[in-house]
Structures are given as structure tokens and as C-alpha cells.
Amino acid sequence: MVNSSMHILVSNDDGIFAEGLWALARQLGRCGRVAIVAPDREQSATGTMVTLRTPLRVTRHHCFSADIPTFTVEGSPSDSVILALGKLVEDVSLVVSGINQGLNLGDDVLISGTVGAALQGYLRGLSAIAVSVPPESGPEVFELAAAFAAEVAGSINTGKLGSNIFLNINLPNRPLETIAGVRVTDLAHKTHIDSVREGNDGRRQYYWLVREQLSRDVAPSTDIWAVENGFISITPLHHCLFRRPDGQIDEAQCGRFFDSLKNARP
Ligand code: MN
Question: At what angle do helices 19-28 and 139-157 cross, to 10 degrees?
Fold first, then answer.
């Protein structure tokens, strides 16, 4: 059944030396050919950032793995995937990003470089998976998350999950025996706000942007609820940001803006 020629691109935002990247690449080797194209250093919280005003440098590495073609990019996670799909790796059908050391739940997906990397695969018509675990997770949880991602990738490979799907997967920091199950979830909404903290280092003022939790009072349908209650969360993502919400602004209103401009002319 398995299409052994499936070519899987693995990337991340924690950089080439991250434990989760290599756990993922090793496990995905069970599903097909794997190539790694990842940032040469940590690029967490870079979201969908792409580099358009400076050239990008790529290095091929032979020291990490004999079996897995491995490249680093002096750029963002999105840069890495765009370069991989456009130039470095042929015939990719699945992009898997992670395993991030830190959950990517709710509003976090908008700033997550892990999700941003997967997004570039999805936008190009491929299937894409982002995988994240809590920051304090040890090697067992990375291995478990990687094995779970490989199961999902295997299903994508056999066509069971359709094409061009985009899944955001988060696991709790628990051994397999105590995981409650798997939930298909919605993103929790309005759970964080970015605030500013100020200080002085003796020479200059400095500022820290800090993610502050607004509410953990979330519905059981959400990703945050699932992980907090010991479930693996799978959130199907899509391009709904680009779909027009109903009833917020209509053409009659916009016509009035235009009429006001015309009436204001001397
Ligand atoms: Mn990260």
C-alpha cells in the first residue's frame, strides 16, 4: 500500500541542532524518503516571515546523516521550505515541521515558525503537518510525537486523509500509557495578548514583548482543552483568514465612503 517513493520534507523553527527535528526525520523514514531543510539557528516565533531584501545562503551537510540529505538555510523557517520546494528537494508531497519544543495552541499558530514552515507546503498544494510538544518534554515525548506524526504521515501517504490537508498536532508531556486519546479540535481563540515590559540595563532602556495568558477557560472542543486534559490534539487548519466573514461590512457602506470623498472635493 505504502508509496515508498513519497518524499517528505522536514523543517522546523528550533534550528538544525534541535532534538525534535531529528526524532521526526528518523521516524518519518518509515514512510518514505526524507530530506531536511531547516534554519541554521533557532528561529522560533518568526511566524510566516520571508526574506526578500537580502540573499539567502544554503549549506549542504554530510556530517549529520548518511541517509538524509540535509541542508541549512541562513533564514527563516518559511525561507527554508520555500527554498527546499523551489530548488533543493524534488517531488515533495508532504511537509512536516517540528517537533517544536513548546506547544503551538490557539492564537500561537499566528506567530509560530513551526506552523509557518508547514504553511508554505500547504500553500503550494501539498499536505503539511506541524508537530509540537511542551517545552519541558524529554526524549521519550519527542520519540512518541515523532512516531505519532509518522502514523499520520503514513495515512496521508495511502490517501486516507485526502490531499492538501494542513494539520497542527500538539502532544501533552505524558508517557503513552497515560495519554487519554486523540481529539480533533478547533483553535482556541483570544487566549493571549502580547504586552510590553520595560527595564533599564544601566545604559539604556530596554523592552521585552511578553505573551500573557488571557484565559484558560476554554471549550472542550479546543486544542488547549485537549492537551491540558491529556489528549493529543489534531487541529485541521485552512485558509479561512482569506475567506470573507458574513455581515461585517457591505458595499452600501463602502459606497458612502466613496460618496463622502466626492462630496468633500472643493
Ligand atoms: Mn520553536
Answer: 40
Residue 146 DSSP label: H
Tens-place pLDDT, residues 110-163: 999 999 999 999 999 999 999 999 999 999 999 999 999 999 999 999 988 989
Q: How far does the centroid of ligand 1 lie from the alpha carbon of residue 114, in Å?
A: 6
Pairing mode, strands 192-200 and 205-213 = antiparallel
Domains in the chain: boundaries? 7-188+219-264
- The dotted CATH code for 7-188+219-264 is 3.40.1210.10
CA 128–ligand 1 middle distance (angstroms):
17
**Stated pTM of the model:** 0.93
- Residue 215 has what pLDDT? 73
CA distance 169 to 130: 6
